[in-house]
Predict the structure.
Amino acid sequence: MKKVLVIGSNGQIGTELVLKLREMFGTENIIASDIKQDCPELLKNGPYVQLDIMDRPAVREYIIDNQVTEVYLLAALLSATAEKNPDFAWKLNMEGLFTILDLAKEKHLKKVFWPSSIAVFGPTTPKQNTPQYTVMEPSTVYGISKQAGERWCEYYAQNFDVDVRSIRYPGLISYKSLPGGGTTDYAVDIFYKAKQNNKFTSFLSENTRLPMMFMDDAIRGTIELMETSKENVKIRSSYNLSGCDFTPKELAESIQKFQPDFKIDYEFDFRQKIADSWPDSICDEHALNDWGWKAEFDLYKMTKVMLENVPA
Ligand code: NAD
Ligand code: AKB
């Protein structure tokens, strides 16, 4: 019997992941949980529990008492927020992971999903079509925490037979919930500003290319990885996953296909340096070969769906 706990359910990924998991496996079997007291409107159709991932005893007690079988651990500080509070970011991003990996090591959990990021790469990584295995010297506290997390996931898998699965998500683009403090957030905000004001000021410069993905692809990829048989999961650090890649200028041009008068200008800030340290595009051949991953949304299709759904 599957009983899933999604920790950090109220965020950009968690909201859509909970909705999809409930649709697939039954509302009562998917428990949303977040540090926030209130359950978001969209998730009120099923169970919700307030949990702080930093409260190790409370998390352990809840998982053991409720016979949870799988955890998706999404609670973290993202790249831009983490740079402003490095000590706390390191603590939050690492401690929660150990709590969950230890529960899996003790066989209280059958499976764990923990997301990594393209932030594991750094300025010395080859930028185009970045391979799965390459130089990894992240220059942000967020990237360092994700890289350390990947190493620990692989260590627990190899030494304690923990079934942990992970994806290095690119920047995710969605309309059901807002992003939570990343460097790629501009690519969501631009759609709100396009609908509301028909103009946008980008905090990244016009030719800053980054790997991105529409949320439907990310959720499908996540569940496909979690549902594939254990033998198919050959990488226990984290899989490269590619959706599409574009610059702010190209994204603006894509919006102009639907709103010809849309205007963009550029005022870059501290996030430019973070973006400059990340890849332009990602090679995801291992995900394709091991468990059949294939993205469905390109820039045009994503732009169309975003403009149709973001409120004016
Ligand atoms: P988000 O910031 O939107 O959501 C994180 C959620 O965690 C929030 O609802 C927050 O309230 C909750 N949270 C924070 N501290 C908590 C705590 N102590 N206990 C319990 N919950 C807590 O983040 P997201 O975009 O949904 O990202 C989820 C995960 O995916 C993160 O690990 C992130 O690094 C990773 N990721 C996201 C992206 C992206 O573009 N969104 C890309 C790469 C990787
Ligand atoms: C961020 O910008 O911090 C995230 C990520 C790519 O990990 N969207």
